[in-house]
Amino acid sequence: MPAINIRTTLPGPKSQAVLDRRDAAVSRASFRSTPVVAASAHNATVTDVDGNTFIDFTAGIGTLNVGHTPTEVVAALQAQAADLIHLCAIVGTYEPYIALAEKLNALVPIDGPKKTFLSNSGAEGVETAIKMARAYTGRPAIVTYEGAYHGRTLLTLSLTSKYALFKKSFGPFAPEIYRVPYPYAYRCPHCRHAGACNLTCFEDLERALLAHVDPAAVAAIIIEPVQGEGGFIPADYEYLRRLRQLCDKHGIVLIADEVQAGFCRTGRWFSFEHSGIQPDLVVMAKSIAAGMPLAAVTGKAAVVDAPHLGGLGSTFGGNPLACVAALKSIELMERENLNQRAEQIGETLMGRFRAWQERFPIIGDVRGLGAMCAVEFVVGPGDRTPNTDAPLKIVGEAYKRGLLLIRAGLYSNCVRTLVPLTIGDAELDEGLDVLEASIAAVA
Ligand SMILES: Cc1ncc(COP(=O)(O)O)c(C=O)c1O
Question: Is the peptide bond before 381 cis (omega within 30 degrees of 0)?
Answer without folding.
Answer: no
